[in-house]
Amino acid sequence: MKVVGVELRGGGGGWRAMKSFGLHVLLGRWFMAFAPLLIMSVSGSTYIFSVYSNDIKSTLGYDQTSLNLVSFFKDLGSNVGVLSGLINEITPPWVVLLIGAIMNLFGYLMIWLSVTGRVAKPKLWQMCLYICIGANSQAFANTGALVTSVMNFPENRGSVIGLLKSFVGISGAILTQLYYAIYVDNSKALILLIAWLPAAVSVVFLRTVRIIKTARQSTELKVFNTFLYISLGLAGFLMILIIIQNSLRFNRIEYVGSACVVILPFLPLATVLKEESKIWRRKEHPINDPVQEKVVAENPQILEELVLPPIEAQASERKPGSCFSNIFKPPDRGEDYTILQALFSIDMLILFVASTCGVGGTLTAIGNLGQIGKSLGYPDHSIETFVSLVSIWNYLGRAMSGFASEIFLVKYKFPRTLVLSFVLLFSCVGHLLIAFPTPYSTYFTSVIIGFCFGAQLTLIFAIISEIFGLKYYSTLYNFGAVSSPVGSYILNVIVAGRLYDKEALKQLEALGLTRKAG
Protein backbone atom coordinates (compact mmCIF):
# COMPACT_ATOMS: atom_id res chain seq x y z
CA MET A 1 0.00 0.00 0.00
CA LYS A 2 1.21 3.49 -0.83
CA VAL A 3 0.22 6.97 0.27
CA VAL A 4 0.96 9.59 -2.42
CA GLY A 5 3.87 7.58 -3.68
CA VAL A 6 5.43 6.80 -0.29
CA GLU A 7 5.69 3.12 0.56
CA LEU A 8 4.35 2.26 4.00
CA ARG A 9 6.41 -0.08 6.16
CA GLY A 10 4.11 -0.16 9.16
CA GLY A 11 1.60 1.94 11.03
CA GLY A 12 4.21 4.38 12.36
CA GLY A 13 5.83 4.84 8.98
CA GLY A 14 2.47 5.36 7.30
CA TRP A 15 1.49 8.02 9.80
CA ARG A 16 4.82 9.78 9.37
CA ALA A 17 4.38 9.70 5.59
CA MET A 18 0.90 11.17 5.83
CA LYS A 19 2.08 13.83 8.25
CA SER A 20 5.01 14.67 6.02
CA PHE A 21 2.77 14.90 2.95
CA GLY A 22 0.32 17.12 4.82
CA LEU A 23 3.16 19.45 5.76
CA HIS A 24 4.38 19.37 2.16
CA VAL A 25 0.92 20.47 0.96
CA LEU A 26 0.60 23.26 3.51
CA LEU A 27 4.02 24.61 2.57
CA GLY A 28 3.59 23.96 -1.14
CA ARG A 29 3.37 26.41 -3.99
CA TRP A 30 -0.13 25.35 -5.06
CA PHE A 31 -1.62 25.65 -1.59
CA MET A 32 -0.12 29.12 -1.56
CA ALA A 33 -1.99 29.75 -4.85
CA PHE A 34 -5.20 28.44 -3.25
CA ALA A 35 -5.06 30.66 -0.15
CA PRO A 36 -5.44 33.97 -2.06
CA LEU A 37 -8.55 32.56 -3.75
CA LEU A 38 -10.26 32.24 -0.37
CA ILE A 39 -8.97 35.62 0.81
CA MET A 40 -10.33 37.27 -2.32
CA SER A 41 -13.65 35.40 -2.15
CA VAL A 42 -14.62 37.31 1.01
CA SER A 43 -12.86 40.63 0.39
CA GLY A 44 -15.48 42.33 -1.79
CA SER A 45 -17.45 44.09 0.94
CA THR A 46 -17.27 47.36 -0.99
CA TYR A 47 -19.31 45.83 -3.83
CA ILE A 48 -22.37 45.26 -1.63
CA PHE A 49 -22.46 48.81 -0.25
CA SER A 50 -25.87 49.30 -1.85
CA VAL A 51 -27.32 46.55 0.38
CA TYR A 52 -26.62 48.42 3.62
CA SER A 53 -26.22 52.01 2.37
CA ASN A 54 -29.89 52.76 2.98
CA ASP A 55 -29.40 51.88 6.66
CA ILE A 56 -26.59 54.42 6.86
CA LYS A 57 -28.70 57.02 5.06
CA SER A 58 -31.89 56.55 7.09
CA THR A 59 -30.35 55.91 10.51
CA LEU A 60 -27.87 58.79 10.38
CA GLY A 61 -30.13 61.18 8.42
CA TYR A 62 -27.92 61.72 5.36
CA ASP A 63 -29.03 63.25 2.05
CA GLN A 64 -27.92 61.82 -1.30
CA THR A 65 -24.86 64.06 -1.58
CA SER A 66 -23.69 63.01 1.90
CA LEU A 67 -24.25 59.34 1.09
CA ASN A 68 -22.36 59.75 -2.18
CA LEU A 69 -19.51 61.33 -0.22
CA VAL A 70 -19.43 58.26 2.06
CA SER A 71 -19.48 56.10 -1.07
CA PHE A 72 -16.56 58.09 -2.48
CA PHE A 73 -14.46 57.47 0.63
CA LYS A 74 -15.36 53.79 0.32
CA ASP A 75 -13.96 53.79 -3.21
CA LEU A 76 -11.00 55.89 -2.09
CA GLY A 77 -10.10 53.43 0.64
CA SER A 78 -10.52 50.33 -1.50
CA ASN A 79 -8.39 51.67 -4.34
CA VAL A 80 -5.70 53.85 -2.75
CA GLY A 81 -3.31 51.20 -1.52
CA VAL A 82 -0.04 53.04 -1.96
CA LEU A 83 0.73 52.59 1.74
CA SER A 84 0.12 48.84 1.53
CA GLY A 85 2.39 48.70 -1.52
CA LEU A 86 5.22 50.53 0.22
CA ILE A 87 4.85 48.32 3.31
CA ASN A 88 4.95 45.23 1.09
CA GLU A 89 8.25 46.42 -0.41
CA ILE A 90 10.00 46.14 2.96
CA THR A 91 8.03 43.48 4.86
CA PRO A 92 6.82 39.94 4.12
CA PRO A 93 3.23 39.56 2.83
CA TRP A 94 1.86 38.33 6.18
CA VAL A 95 2.50 41.74 7.73
CA VAL A 96 0.41 43.40 5.01
CA LEU A 97 -2.40 40.86 5.47
CA LEU A 98 -2.39 41.30 9.26
CA ILE A 99 -2.59 45.08 9.04
CA GLY A 100 -5.44 44.74 6.55
CA ALA A 101 -7.33 42.37 8.86
CA ILE A 102 -7.06 44.81 11.77
CA MET A 103 -8.21 47.74 9.61
CA ASN A 104 -11.16 45.75 8.25
CA LEU A 105 -12.34 44.75 11.72
CA PHE A 106 -12.00 48.27 13.14
CA GLY A 107 -13.56 50.19 10.24
CA TYR A 108 -16.68 48.10 9.69
CA LEU A 109 -17.18 47.39 13.40
CA MET A 110 -17.34 51.16 14.06
CA ILE A 111 -19.88 51.54 11.24
CA TRP A 112 -21.99 48.74 12.72
CA LEU A 113 -21.83 50.28 16.19
CA SER A 114 -22.87 53.66 14.74
CA VAL A 115 -25.78 52.34 12.66
CA THR A 116 -27.14 50.20 15.52
CA GLY A 117 -26.92 53.10 17.98
CA ARG A 118 -24.40 51.43 20.28
CA VAL A 119 -22.18 54.51 20.09
CA ALA A 120 -23.02 58.20 19.73
CA LYS A 121 -24.04 59.33 16.25
CA PRO A 122 -20.80 60.04 14.39
CA LYS A 123 -20.22 63.16 12.35
CA LEU A 124 -20.08 62.82 8.57
CA TRP A 125 -16.29 63.06 8.47
CA GLN A 126 -16.04 60.31 11.08
CA MET A 127 -18.27 57.98 9.05
CA CYS A 128 -16.18 58.74 5.97
CA LEU A 129 -13.05 57.89 7.97
CA TYR A 130 -14.51 54.60 9.26
CA ILE A 131 -15.54 53.35 5.83
CA CYS A 132 -12.26 54.52 4.28
CA ILE A 133 -10.28 52.51 6.85
CA GLY A 134 -12.50 49.45 6.45
CA ALA A 135 -12.43 49.61 2.66
CA ASN A 136 -8.68 50.22 2.60
CA SER A 137 -8.23 46.77 4.11
CA GLN A 138 -9.26 45.45 0.68
CA ALA A 139 -6.21 47.16 -0.81
CA PHE A 140 -4.03 45.44 1.81
CA ALA A 141 -5.60 42.07 0.99
CA ASN A 142 -5.07 42.69 -2.73
CA THR A 143 -1.46 43.69 -2.23
CA GLY A 144 -0.60 40.87 0.14
CA ALA A 145 -2.36 38.11 -1.80
CA LEU A 146 -2.51 39.18 -5.46
CA VAL A 147 0.94 40.75 -5.81
CA THR A 148 2.53 37.75 -4.10
CA SER A 149 0.72 35.40 -6.49
CA VAL A 150 1.93 37.37 -9.52
CA MET A 151 5.49 37.17 -8.16
CA ASN A 152 5.14 33.40 -7.82
CA PHE A 153 3.61 32.90 -11.30
CA PRO A 154 5.04 35.70 -13.50
CA GLU A 155 4.68 33.70 -16.72
CA ASN A 156 0.89 33.52 -16.22
CA ARG A 157 0.29 36.96 -14.74
CA GLY A 158 -2.77 37.69 -16.86
CA SER A 159 -4.47 34.47 -15.81
CA VAL A 160 -3.49 34.94 -12.16
CA ILE A 161 -4.74 38.53 -11.99
CA GLY A 162 -7.93 37.67 -13.86
CA LEU A 163 -8.65 34.68 -11.60
CA LEU A 164 -8.01 36.47 -8.31
CA LYS A 165 -9.78 39.65 -9.37
CA SER A 166 -12.75 37.57 -10.52
CA PHE A 167 -13.07 36.06 -7.04
CA VAL A 168 -13.14 39.60 -5.63
CA GLY A 169 -15.93 40.43 -8.07
CA ILE A 170 -17.99 37.41 -7.07
CA SER A 171 -17.28 37.81 -3.35
CA GLY A 172 -20.15 40.28 -3.02
CA ALA A 173 -22.61 37.57 -4.03
CA ILE A 174 -20.94 35.03 -1.70
CA LEU A 175 -21.13 37.42 1.27
CA THR A 176 -24.75 38.20 0.45
CA GLN A 177 -25.71 34.51 0.50
CA LEU A 178 -23.97 34.02 3.84
CA TYR A 179 -25.74 37.10 5.19
CA TYR A 180 -29.14 35.76 4.11
CA ALA A 181 -28.42 32.38 5.71
CA ILE A 182 -27.26 33.84 9.03
CA TYR A 183 -29.27 37.05 9.42
CA VAL A 184 -32.10 36.73 6.80
CA ASP A 185 -33.20 40.35 6.14
CA ASN A 186 -31.35 42.24 8.87
CA SER A 187 -29.13 44.35 6.62
CA LYS A 188 -27.49 46.09 9.59
CA ALA A 189 -26.11 42.71 10.65
CA LEU A 190 -24.45 42.42 7.23
CA ILE A 191 -22.06 45.17 8.32
CA LEU A 192 -21.04 43.01 11.29
CA LEU A 193 -20.48 40.02 9.00
CA ILE A 194 -18.15 41.93 6.68
CA ALA A 195 -16.31 43.23 9.75
CA TRP A 196 -15.20 39.86 11.15
CA LEU A 197 -15.26 37.32 8.28
CA PRO A 198 -12.64 38.81 5.88
CA ALA A 199 -10.38 39.57 8.84
CA ALA A 200 -10.64 35.99 10.09
CA VAL A 201 -9.82 34.45 6.69
CA SER A 202 -6.76 36.69 6.26
CA VAL A 203 -5.47 35.75 9.72
CA VAL A 204 -5.88 32.01 8.99
CA PHE A 205 -3.60 32.25 5.93
CA LEU A 206 -1.01 34.66 7.30
CA ARG A 207 1.82 32.11 7.13
CA THR A 208 0.66 30.54 3.87
CA VAL A 209 0.86 33.58 1.57
CA ARG A 210 4.53 34.13 0.78
CA ILE A 211 6.93 34.33 -2.15
CA ILE A 212 8.19 30.87 -3.17
CA LYS A 213 11.21 30.72 -5.47
CA THR A 214 11.06 27.71 -7.75
CA ALA A 215 11.30 26.77 -11.41
CA ARG A 216 8.17 27.10 -13.51
CA GLN A 217 6.08 23.98 -14.15
CA SER A 218 4.72 23.23 -17.61
CA THR A 219 1.28 22.44 -16.13
CA GLU A 220 0.75 25.85 -14.54
CA LEU A 221 -1.69 27.19 -17.13
CA LYS A 222 -3.66 23.93 -17.07
CA VAL A 223 -4.10 24.23 -13.30
CA PHE A 224 -5.24 27.83 -13.54
CA ASN A 225 -7.70 26.83 -16.23
CA THR A 226 -9.10 24.23 -13.83
CA PHE A 227 -9.47 26.94 -11.19
CA LEU A 228 -11.28 29.05 -13.80
CA TYR A 229 -13.74 26.26 -14.64
CA ILE A 230 -14.53 25.82 -10.95
CA SER A 231 -15.11 29.54 -10.53
CA LEU A 232 -17.35 29.58 -13.61
CA GLY A 233 -19.45 26.87 -12.01
CA LEU A 234 -19.60 28.93 -8.81
CA ALA A 235 -20.68 32.01 -10.74
CA GLY A 236 -23.34 30.07 -12.65
CA PHE A 237 -24.72 28.59 -9.43
CA LEU A 238 -24.85 32.03 -7.80
CA MET A 239 -26.57 33.58 -10.82
CA ILE A 240 -29.33 30.93 -10.80
CA LEU A 241 -29.66 31.26 -7.02
CA ILE A 242 -30.00 35.06 -7.18
CA ILE A 243 -32.67 34.87 -9.88
CA ILE A 244 -34.67 32.27 -7.91
CA GLN A 245 -34.38 34.23 -4.67
CA ASN A 246 -35.63 37.41 -6.31
CA SER A 247 -38.49 35.57 -7.99
CA LEU A 248 -39.63 33.57 -4.95
CA ARG A 249 -39.72 34.41 -1.28
CA PHE A 250 -37.26 32.24 0.67
CA ASN A 251 -37.74 31.36 4.32
CA ARG A 252 -34.94 30.94 6.86
CA ILE A 253 -34.42 27.22 6.17
CA GLU A 254 -34.20 27.75 2.40
CA TYR A 255 -31.67 30.54 2.89
CA VAL A 256 -29.57 28.26 5.09
CA GLY A 257 -29.70 25.62 2.35
CA SER A 258 -28.53 28.15 -0.24
CA ALA A 259 -25.50 28.87 1.94
CA CYS A 260 -23.97 25.63 0.63
CA VAL A 261 -22.40 28.01 -1.88
CA VAL A 262 -19.67 28.50 0.73
CA ILE A 263 -18.43 24.98 -0.06
CA LEU A 264 -17.74 25.76 -3.73
CA PRO A 265 -14.71 28.06 -3.20
CA PHE A 266 -13.00 25.09 -1.50
CA LEU A 267 -13.24 22.87 -4.60
CA PRO A 268 -9.86 24.05 -6.00
CA LEU A 269 -8.34 22.31 -2.99
CA ALA A 270 -8.81 18.99 -4.79
CA THR A 271 -6.66 20.25 -7.67
CA VAL A 272 -4.10 21.53 -5.17
CA LEU A 273 -3.81 18.09 -3.56
CA LYS A 274 -3.47 16.46 -6.97
CA GLU A 275 -0.67 18.79 -8.10
CA GLU A 276 1.18 18.62 -4.79
CA SER A 277 1.01 14.81 -4.83
CA LYS A 278 2.71 14.84 -8.26
CA ILE A 279 5.48 17.06 -6.89
CA TRP A 280 5.78 14.80 -3.86
CA ARG A 281 6.20 11.70 -6.02
CA ARG A 282 8.86 13.42 -8.13
CA LYS A 283 10.77 14.25 -4.97
CA GLU A 284 10.61 10.63 -3.89
CA HIS A 285 11.63 9.34 -7.36
CA PRO A 286 13.79 12.08 -8.93
CA ILE A 287 15.51 9.86 -11.53
CA ASN A 288 13.20 10.80 -14.38
CA ASP A 289 11.46 14.17 -14.16
CA PRO A 290 9.80 14.87 -17.51
CA VAL A 291 8.08 18.00 -16.27
CA GLN A 292 11.29 19.69 -15.20
CA GLU A 293 13.07 18.50 -18.35
CA LYS A 294 10.29 20.05 -20.43
CA VAL A 295 10.56 23.31 -18.56
CA VAL A 296 14.28 23.51 -19.18
CA ALA A 297 13.83 22.73 -22.87
CA GLU A 298 10.98 25.20 -23.43
CA ASN A 299 12.01 28.03 -21.10
CA PRO A 300 15.76 28.03 -20.49
CA GLN A 301 15.65 31.73 -19.66
CA ILE A 302 13.67 31.02 -16.48
CA LEU A 303 16.56 29.15 -14.90
CA GLU A 304 18.89 31.93 -15.93
CA GLU A 305 16.62 34.44 -14.23
CA LEU A 306 16.79 32.42 -11.03
CA VAL A 307 20.56 32.56 -11.09
CA LEU A 308 20.78 36.20 -12.13
CA PRO A 309 17.53 38.17 -11.75
CA PRO A 310 16.85 40.87 -14.34
CA ILE A 311 17.15 43.51 -11.64
CA GLU A 312 20.72 42.57 -10.87
CA ALA A 313 21.58 42.09 -14.53
CA GLN A 314 20.34 45.56 -15.39
CA ALA A 315 22.10 47.08 -12.40
CA SER A 316 25.41 45.51 -13.47
CA GLU A 317 25.08 46.99 -16.97
CA ARG A 318 24.19 50.53 -15.93
CA LYS A 319 26.49 53.15 -14.54
CA PRO A 320 25.81 54.20 -10.96
CA GLY A 321 24.13 57.54 -10.44
CA SER A 322 21.44 59.42 -8.55
CA CYS A 323 17.96 57.92 -8.72
CA PHE A 324 16.60 61.40 -9.53
CA SER A 325 18.91 61.80 -12.52
CA ASN A 326 17.29 58.78 -14.21
CA ILE A 327 13.65 59.73 -13.64
CA PHE A 328 13.19 60.89 -17.22
CA LYS A 329 15.50 58.22 -18.64
CA PRO A 330 13.37 55.09 -18.17
CA PRO A 331 14.47 51.66 -19.41
CA ASP A 332 12.77 49.84 -22.25
CA ARG A 333 9.17 48.77 -21.73
CA GLY A 334 9.03 45.47 -19.88
CA GLU A 335 12.16 46.08 -17.85
CA ASP A 336 12.03 47.09 -14.19
CA TYR A 337 11.23 50.79 -13.79
CA THR A 338 11.84 52.61 -10.53
CA ILE A 339 8.73 54.00 -8.85
CA LEU A 340 9.47 57.59 -9.94
CA GLN A 341 10.33 56.55 -13.51
CA ALA A 342 6.97 54.82 -13.79
CA LEU A 343 4.98 57.67 -12.21
CA PHE A 344 6.49 60.30 -14.51
CA SER A 345 6.18 58.22 -17.67
CA ILE A 346 3.73 58.98 -20.45
CA ASP A 347 2.53 55.36 -20.31
CA MET A 348 1.34 55.76 -16.70
CA LEU A 349 -0.36 59.07 -17.58
CA ILE A 350 -2.30 57.43 -20.41
CA LEU A 351 -3.33 54.52 -18.17
CA PHE A 352 -4.35 56.95 -15.42
CA VAL A 353 -6.58 59.03 -17.70
CA ALA A 354 -8.11 55.95 -19.32
CA SER A 355 -8.93 54.29 -16.00
CA THR A 356 -10.18 57.56 -14.45
CA CYS A 357 -12.77 57.93 -17.19
CA GLY A 358 -13.45 54.22 -17.75
CA VAL A 359 -13.50 52.75 -14.25
CA GLY A 360 -14.88 55.98 -12.72
CA GLY A 361 -17.75 56.00 -15.21
CA THR A 362 -18.70 52.37 -14.64
CA LEU A 363 -18.43 52.78 -10.86
CA THR A 364 -20.82 55.71 -11.04
CA ALA A 365 -23.30 53.69 -13.09
CA ILE A 366 -23.08 50.70 -10.72
CA GLY A 367 -23.50 52.89 -7.63
CA ASN A 368 -26.66 54.49 -9.00
CA LEU A 369 -28.14 51.50 -10.82
CA GLY A 370 -30.82 50.90 -8.18
CA GLN A 371 -32.01 54.51 -8.30
CA ILE A 372 -31.93 54.48 -12.10
CA GLY A 373 -34.16 51.42 -12.11
CA LYS A 374 -36.58 53.02 -9.63
CA SER A 375 -36.81 56.22 -11.67
CA LEU A 376 -37.61 54.17 -14.79
CA GLY A 377 -40.46 52.42 -12.99
CA TYR A 378 -39.00 48.93 -12.56
CA PRO A 379 -40.56 46.85 -9.74
CA ASP A 380 -38.43 46.29 -6.64
CA HIS A 381 -37.74 42.60 -7.36
CA SER A 382 -36.45 43.48 -10.85
CA ILE A 383 -34.18 46.17 -9.43
CA GLU A 384 -32.81 43.72 -6.86
CA THR A 385 -32.19 41.19 -9.63
CA PHE A 386 -30.12 43.30 -12.00
CA VAL A 387 -28.28 45.05 -9.14
CA SER A 388 -27.35 41.66 -7.66
CA LEU A 389 -26.31 40.26 -11.03
CA VAL A 390 -23.82 43.10 -11.58
CA SER A 391 -21.38 41.17 -9.37
CA ILE A 392 -21.72 38.13 -11.66
CA TRP A 393 -20.99 40.15 -14.81
CA ASN A 394 -18.19 41.89 -12.92
CA TYR A 395 -16.74 38.46 -12.20
CA LEU A 396 -17.03 37.36 -15.84
CA GLY A 397 -15.33 40.55 -17.01
CA ARG A 398 -12.41 40.03 -14.66
CA ALA A 399 -11.97 36.34 -15.42
CA MET A 400 -12.47 36.42 -19.18
CA SER A 401 -10.33 39.52 -19.78
CA GLY A 402 -7.44 37.96 -17.87
CA PHE A 403 -7.48 34.56 -19.56
CA ALA A 404 -8.59 35.80 -23.00
CA SER A 405 -5.97 38.57 -23.13
CA GLU A 406 -3.33 36.02 -22.14
CA ILE A 407 -4.36 33.77 -25.05
CA PHE A 408 -4.49 36.69 -27.52
CA LEU A 409 -1.07 37.88 -26.39
CA VAL A 410 0.69 34.50 -26.52
CA LYS A 411 -0.93 33.05 -29.66
CA TYR A 412 -1.72 36.13 -31.77
CA LYS A 413 0.59 38.82 -30.32
CA PHE A 414 -2.50 40.95 -29.69
CA PRO A 415 -1.52 43.50 -27.00
CA ARG A 416 -3.52 43.96 -23.82
CA THR A 417 -3.59 47.72 -24.35
CA LEU A 418 -5.66 47.22 -27.50
CA VAL A 419 -8.01 44.88 -25.65
CA LEU A 420 -8.46 47.64 -23.02
CA SER A 421 -9.38 50.11 -25.78
CA PHE A 422 -12.12 47.80 -27.06
CA VAL A 423 -13.47 47.32 -23.53
CA LEU A 424 -13.65 51.10 -23.01
CA LEU A 425 -15.57 51.49 -26.27
CA PHE A 426 -17.95 48.70 -25.29
CA SER A 427 -18.66 50.37 -21.92
CA CYS A 428 -19.91 53.43 -23.81
CA VAL A 429 -22.81 51.28 -25.08
CA GLY A 430 -23.92 50.77 -21.47
CA HIS A 431 -23.81 54.50 -20.73
CA LEU A 432 -25.83 55.24 -23.88
CA LEU A 433 -28.49 52.73 -22.78
CA ILE A 434 -28.79 54.65 -19.50
CA ALA A 435 -29.05 57.99 -21.28
CA PHE A 436 -31.57 56.71 -23.85
CA PRO A 437 -33.49 53.94 -22.07
CA THR A 438 -35.83 51.52 -23.78
CA PRO A 439 -38.02 48.80 -22.21
CA TYR A 440 -35.84 46.28 -20.35
CA SER A 441 -32.67 48.09 -21.45
CA THR A 442 -31.48 48.36 -17.84
CA TYR A 443 -30.96 44.58 -17.75
CA PHE A 444 -28.57 44.87 -20.71
CA THR A 445 -26.99 47.91 -19.07
CA SER A 446 -26.18 45.92 -15.93
CA VAL A 447 -24.55 43.21 -18.06
CA ILE A 448 -22.40 45.62 -20.07
CA ILE A 449 -21.42 47.92 -17.20
CA GLY A 450 -20.63 45.05 -14.82
CA PHE A 451 -18.59 43.16 -17.42
CA CYS A 452 -16.61 46.23 -18.54
CA PHE A 453 -15.90 47.35 -14.98
CA GLY A 454 -14.34 43.99 -14.14
CA ALA A 455 -12.48 43.69 -17.44
CA GLN A 456 -10.88 47.13 -17.13
CA LEU A 457 -9.45 46.41 -13.67
CA THR A 458 -7.81 43.14 -14.70
CA LEU A 459 -6.35 44.58 -17.89
CA ILE A 460 -4.97 47.73 -16.25
CA PHE A 461 -3.15 45.81 -13.52
CA ALA A 462 -1.74 43.30 -16.02
CA ILE A 463 -0.57 46.11 -18.33
CA ILE A 464 1.22 47.83 -15.43
CA SER A 465 3.16 44.65 -14.67
CA GLU A 466 4.09 44.19 -18.34
CA ILE A 467 5.25 47.75 -18.99
CA PHE A 468 6.94 48.62 -15.70
CA GLY A 469 8.22 45.22 -14.54
CA LEU A 470 7.69 43.35 -11.27
CA LYS A 471 10.40 44.81 -9.03
CA TYR A 472 8.14 47.54 -7.61
CA TYR A 473 4.86 46.04 -8.72
CA SER A 474 3.27 46.09 -5.25
CA THR A 475 3.59 49.90 -5.20
CA LEU A 476 2.86 50.61 -8.87
CA TYR A 477 -0.16 48.28 -8.77
CA ASN A 478 -1.66 50.47 -6.07
CA PHE A 479 -0.71 53.71 -7.80
CA GLY A 480 -2.62 52.46 -10.83
CA ALA A 481 -5.70 51.93 -8.66
CA VAL A 482 -5.74 55.57 -7.49
CA SER A 483 -7.47 56.66 -10.70
CA SER A 484 -10.59 54.69 -9.76
CA PRO A 485 -11.63 56.82 -6.74
CA VAL A 486 -10.60 59.99 -8.57
CA GLY A 487 -12.96 59.13 -11.41
CA SER A 488 -15.65 58.07 -8.94
CA TYR A 489 -15.42 61.38 -7.07
CA ILE A 490 -15.57 63.50 -10.22
CA LEU A 491 -18.37 61.60 -11.91
CA ASN A 492 -20.36 60.28 -8.93
CA VAL A 493 -20.07 62.97 -6.25
CA ILE A 494 -19.52 66.17 -8.23
CA VAL A 495 -21.58 65.35 -11.32
CA ALA A 496 -24.20 62.69 -10.51
CA GLY A 497 -24.78 63.63 -6.85
CA ARG A 498 -25.34 67.32 -7.54
CA LEU A 499 -27.56 66.65 -10.54
CA TYR A 500 -29.61 64.22 -8.43
CA ASP A 501 -30.08 66.73 -5.59
CA LYS A 502 -30.86 69.54 -8.05
CA GLU A 503 -33.66 67.54 -9.63
CA ALA A 504 -34.92 66.40 -6.21
CA LEU A 505 -35.19 70.04 -5.07
CA LYS A 506 -37.22 70.88 -8.17
CA GLN A 507 -39.65 68.07 -7.35
CA LEU A 508 -39.94 69.26 -3.73
CA GLU A 509 -40.63 72.80 -4.86
CA ALA A 510 -43.31 71.55 -7.23
CA LEU A 511 -44.99 69.87 -4.23
CA GLY A 512 -44.64 73.03 -2.13
CA LEU A 513 -42.09 71.43 0.22
CA THR A 514 -38.67 72.58 1.39
CA ARG A 515 -35.58 70.64 2.47
CA LYS A 516 -33.92 71.42 5.78
CA ALA A 517 -30.15 71.21 6.15
CA GLY A 518 -28.86 68.07 7.86
Automatic annotation (TrEMBL):
UniProt keyword annotation of S-adenosyl-L-methionine present: no
Domain NFD4 C-terminal: 344-512
Keywords per UniProt: Membrane, Transmembrane, Transmembrane helix
A Pfam family recorded for this sequence: Nodulin-like
SUPFAM superfamilies in UniProt: MFS general substrate transporter
Record-annotated membrane-spanning stretches: 26-49, 94-115, 160-183, 189-209, 221-243, 255-273, 349-372, 417-436, 442-464, 476-500
Locations listed in the record: Membrane
Bilayer topology annotation: Multi-pass membrane protein
Residues annotated as domain Nodulin-like: 29-271
Keyword Membrane recorded: yes
Superkingdom of this protein's organism: Eukaryota
A cellular-component GO term for this protein: membrane
Protein name, entry field: Protein nuclear fusion defective 4
Organism: Quercus suber (Cork oak)
Gene assigned in the entry: NFD4_1
